[in-house]
Here is the input.
Amino acid sequence: MPNVTTVPAAEAERALAVIVRAFEDDPMTGWSFPSAQEYQEYFPAILRAVGGRAFLHGTAHEVDGYAGAALWLPPGIEPDHEALHALFATDEPTPRQREIASVFEQMAGYHPAGPHWFLPFIGVDPMHQHKGYGSMLLQHALAQCDQDHLPAYLESSNVANITLYRRHGFDVLGTIQVGSSPVVTPMLRAAR
Here is the structure.
């Protein structure tokens, strides 16, 4: 049986590489970064800015030797908003950059106000998908959420994953779609 383990900070790049591979065909990343070069150049930096603090708090997990990985931010820990802003800061934003900024603004409006666990990224290497690794990663962290009696929050950038999240107790809060962007679905799993 594959094990879910905490990713040591020294192995953060291995976990990030798995998530980068997992999101190569994601609707939102494909829309945000139309070229493979842009994707490889910018997406890892977004992963670090939004979910990188998971490595500092021992809340980044991997399954079966990095077949998949998840970055969870514990209650009170926020993404690095300054680093994220720097990634998108430009004197003359393109129409696409304005739409991306609007998507991020709307996502922020759905985040729970009180203490909660936040799952900014979870991904399974395409070679290992459909083996239950995503469920294993979710179950591992959701056990901690339940122990803490706190809700869990995520934003699904791929409608194909909504069924998986629903199976684990997440409910759809709404949908976000700006201009030509794909749909992003904010989801919340109530405290148990």
Remarks:
- The first strand starts at residue 4 and ends at 6.
- DSSP finds eight helices and seven strands in the chain.
- The mean pLDDT is 93.
- The two ends are 27 Å apart (CA to CA).
